[in-house]
Amino acid sequence: MAAKKPTYNDWMEFAKKHQVDTNPGFLSAAYRYAELMKDIASMRKQVKSDGLISEKTYGGKANSYAHPLINEIAKYHDKVNACEQEMRAVARDFGKAPPAQNKLSAFMGDA
Q1: Within a domain: 35
Q2: Which of 17, 40, 41, 103 has the least CB density, counted as fewest CB within 10 Å?
C-alpha cells in the first residue's frame, strides 16, 4: 500500500520548523496542495461509487473501459508531487534548518 500523503497541517508544521510559514511562495504551494488533495479525494469517492469499469454499447456490441477519472487522478498526483517539491525547495532556499537536538534534550522533552 502506498504511503499516506502529509496533510496541509503537516506541511504548515514543517514550515514553522524551517521558519518559512510566512513565505508567500510556500503558502501558495501549500494552499494549492490542499486543494488538489481535496479534488483527489472527491474523484476517488466518485470512482468508488461508479465502479472502476464502465460499459457502453457501440453498434450493438458491449465495450468495457476504465473509469475516465482514473487517468485524471494520476495527473493530479503529479501536480501534488510538484507542489511538494516546490515547498521543499522554498524551505531549502529561504528557510533555516531546525535546531538539532542533543540526546539529553530530546529525552527531557526540551528543545
Answers
A1: yes
A2: 103
Residue 102 lies in a domain: no
List the alpha helices (DSSP H) in the chain: 8-17, 24-50, 69-94, 103-108
- Report the domain count for the chain: 1
Q: Which domain holds residue 36?
A: 25-44+66-74+81-87
Is the whole-model pTM more than 0.85? no
Task: Tell me, yes or no, whether 13 lies in a domain.
Answer: no
> Taking a C-beta distance cutoff of 8 angstroms, is the pair 25, 86 a contact?
yes
* 14-17 contact pairs (CB < 8 A, 24+): 14/87, 14/91, 15/87, 15/91, 15/95, 17/98
For residue 106, what pLDDT band results from cuts at 50, 70 and 90? low
**50-101 pLDDT per residue, tens:** 888 877 788 888 888 888 898 999 999 999 999 999 999 999 999 887 766 6
